Amino acid sequence: MKKDYLKYIAALLLFGTNGIVASGIGLPSYEIVLFRAGLGALFLVSAFCILRTPQLLNNPRKLGLIALSGVSMGACWLFAYMGYSEAGIGLTSILIALGPVVVMALSPLLFGDGLRKRTIIGFLAVLAGVVLANGGKLEGGAAAGMVHGICSALAYASMILLSKKAGDADGLESSTVQLVAAFATAAAGMALSGTGIQVPDSSDIVPALILGLVNTGIGSYLYFSAVTNLSAQSVAVCSYVEPVTAVVMAAMVLGESMVVIQWAGALLVVGGAVFCEVSKRFAFSPHFR
């Protein structure tokens, strides 16, 4: 397996535990997003100042695209948490899963990635798996929550496409810029919402640090240092590892029950992703090797 592919999967596995870690934080969703982005950005800025010298300042176009991808990431998180509270996690997760569909649909036009039959088959398998992993049911919810879920999906697709459009960049520097932009977006969203900042309890500190420094800081570095070197279709298909990880971890750690149909969905997602990646007829786009 390619090193970048392993880094990408590792990032998705970390992201899949976000809900588990966040369940131990007794703060409103807006504030969780703000702390998550802020701590992650602080971690990466510190690491960057120690280990690197700025390079993106010499390429304003690339810097702008990377910053916009960070804005999209922050918007994705904000819309997702809004959808969770308004329409439920199940329906919102299904709607956010439309993001990779958008990536796959646009990648032939934007990046010249040809749609292969095996890629389409694997993608349909993981999409069906996401539906099954959420219990095979769509929860009822407000129209506003559905709109926010769709907005999160579009923001997620935009994040991937903008990251790839920026091309190769130092993984640490690009992820630092993206998280700083995501934090600014979360702060702006919180300001527009008119909600104040609630002081966290002592019991919130440890899970908040894990969510911000490990899951977001390290996870974002692994994610963005790998995503530009993988084809858009590979990124789209394998991204479904994240929601399935969330379902499985919720069952194992929080004791949430998983029925047979959900386990079948998890197997479909993993199997579909592996099918696309190990197939001899699947090739990474030459533009992103």
What does this entry look like structurally?
The protein is an all-alpha fold. The protein contains 13 helices and no strands.
Shape: globular
Q: Please bin the fraction of helical residues.
A: over 70%
Radius of gyration: 18 Å
How large a portion of the residues is in β-strands, by DSSP E?
under 5%
N-to-C SSE string, H for helix and E for strand: HHHHHHHHHHHHH
How many helix segments? 13
Average per-residue pLDDT, rounded, comes to 77
**First-residue to last-residue Cα separation:** 13 Å
Q: What's the main sheet like?
A: none
Extract low-pLDDT stretches: 280-289
User: How many beta-strand runs?
Assistant: 0
Structural class determined from secondary elements: mainly alpha
Tell me the layout of helices and strands:
Blueprint: H1 3-16, H2 18-22, H3 29-51, H4 60-87, H5 89-96, H6 98-110, H7 117-133, H8 143-166, H9 171-193, H10 202-227, H11 232-238, H12 241-253, H13 260-278
Helix pairs in contact: 1-10, 1-12, 3-4, 3-9, 3-10, 4-5, 4-8, 4-9, 5-8, 6-8, 6-11, 7-11, 7-13, 9-10, 12-13
Sum up the structure in keywords.
mainly alpha; 13 helices; 76% helix; 289 residues; globular
What's this entry about, in short?
This protein is mainly α. The chain has 13 helices and no strands.
